[in-house]
Amino acid sequence: MEILNGIMNLASPAVFLSMSAGVAWGIICGALPGLGATIGIALLIPFTFTMSPVVALPMLAGVYAGAIYGGGITAILLGVPGTSADAATVFDGHPMAKKGQARKALRTSVTSSAIGGMFAAIVLLLLAPPLAKLSLAFGPHEYFLIAIFGLTVIAAVSPGSILKGLIAGALGLMLGTVGLDPIVGEMRFGFGYVELFDGLPLIPLLLGLFAFPQCLKFTEDLVTKGLSQINISSDKSDTSTLTLSEIWGMKRTLSRSAILGTIIGIIPGAGAAIAGFVSYAAEKRAAKDPTKLGTGVIEGVAASEAANNGVCSGSLVPLLTLSIPGSPTAAVILGALLIHGMVPGPELFTKYAEATYTFLAAGFFCNIVMLLMGWYGSNIFGKIANIPTVIMAPSMLVICFTGAYAVRQQFFDLGLMILIGVVAWFLTRYGYPMASVLLGVILGPISESGFRRAMLISDGDYTSFFTRPLSLVLIVLTFFSLYAGWKLNQRMEAFAAESIDKADELMEKSKPA
């Protein structure tokens, strides 16, 4: 009955409009590097003070879903993820845009995001209490092992040399050690800068790894080649679209990615970025021809986007039942709940049942609103591909500087972004994947703090990792992932050799007798 009441509340014009406005605002925040879901929700909370929770909470749910999808817009069109959650979307989304399929890539992104989000919302609505118990089973041992498991996908996200991917991942792990020691609280590698006490700030890092190098590349093209267009699309009248048969053909990809995203979202601290990478790696290993992943195929976009949106509702499971935020955005939502007098726990599903179930129902229906906005908005978004470089390059630079400064309002972050961007530009020229660097930075602190806490709890007994059932499961998954990565490399080498042989055979046949 409470679920039906929550759904009926969404039919109210005020609630529906607030949810739709939240989705639209979320898409804008996600597409602009430096904002994202966390800041987008934080900026809206003051406007919800005078609102009823039944009206305010659906708006915040819409922002959360819309922002994760919005980050994929710039990832596809410009190769610059609006949020870290969409980093894996770049691998196939941007190549699709370069091939003149920007609209198709955008529609794949929003469709996959909506399906992943709706699946996770149903799971949250029906299975929240029992699934919350799963998150309680994760201790320091499990956090360390899940971080190590996450690092095994580096092989899959390295489009060229695996060695270069590992080197980039190791660089990311090193960058992740900057800041206060998670155990003893001593400063490490801060070089006297208090701005680094909390580690490398994520937004300047994200802009430095992806956006600033792209600006430098645009500028280089203008100087050396005199290009007048970005050259994203080879067909200025992009008529590409996504068909129902193609969506149905991705049913396995979408199902697997939605499940992975929901499970990873339930684990506090894992996050949407990890979900995107893990799901993309799973898709690459399951593909009949893994060499196609990374060249611009819809399955690569779908795998990342379905997983990272599945994290949205998944991260709310431990929040609503145990008061444990599963992500930074969930922590902000926790603040919004407390502001409206709703303390997470049993009372949410009894005393505040109407507002709670309206919030949970909004987690499902806001994805439908997002699907409609994104599907028809792709016609407008795709036109970004035709903006001349002389306009795009300085515009992106303005966004970079604004985004890097806006989060903490410190000029130090501008210099840090430029430094990281210049280094990243040189590394990308020599084939080092920046996605592996980002993965290392995200997983480094999780793995380090988990391992050191585990050692403190067990008095330095390494065998404690093999005495915990969940740890054993994660160890088995890690070795399986390594084995699957090795087999993936073998398959890719075999496909590459077969392609070369076919090309040689065609050349021989084309020669005159």
Question: Can you offer a commentary on this structure?
Answer:
A two-stranded antiparallel ribbon has the order 1-2. It contains 20 helices and 2 strands. The radius of gyration is 23 Å and the shape is globular. It has one domain (2-232, 244-504). Residues 228-236 have low confidence and may be disordered. The chain has 513 residues and is an all-alpha fold.
Category from helices, strands and their pairing: mainly alpha
Q: Write down the oligomeric state.
A: single chain
Q: Biggest sheet, open or closed, and with what strands and sense?
A: 2 strands, antiparallel
Round the Cα radius of gyration to an integer and report it: 23 Å
Write the element-wise H/E pattern from the N-terminal end onward.
Answer: HHHHHHHHEEHHHHHHHHHHHH
Spatial strand sequence of the major β-sheet: 1-2
Average pLDDT taken over every residue: 79
Overall number of domains? 1
**Poorly predicted runs:** 228-236
Find the count of extended strands (DSSP E, 2+ residues): 2
Morphology: globular
User: Whole-Å distance between the termini?
Assistant: 80 Å
Number of helices in the DSSP assignment: 20
SSE layout:
Elements: H1 2-10, H2 13-31, H3 36-44, H4 53-78, H5 90-98, H6 102-136, H7 140-151, H8 162-175, E1 179-180, E2 187-188, H9 202-225, H10 244-249, H11 251-266, H12 272-286, H13 298-314, H14 316-322, H15 328-339, H16 353-381, H17 389-406, H18 411-429, H19 434-457, H20 469-510
Antiparallel strand pairs: 1-2
Helix pairs in contact: 1-16, 2-3, 2-4, 2-16, 3-4, 3-15, 4-5, 4-6, 4-13, 4-15, 4-16, 5-6, 5-13, 6-11, 6-13, 6-14, 6-16, 7-19, 7-20, 8-19, 9-17, 9-18, 9-19, 11-12, 11-13, 12-13, 17-18
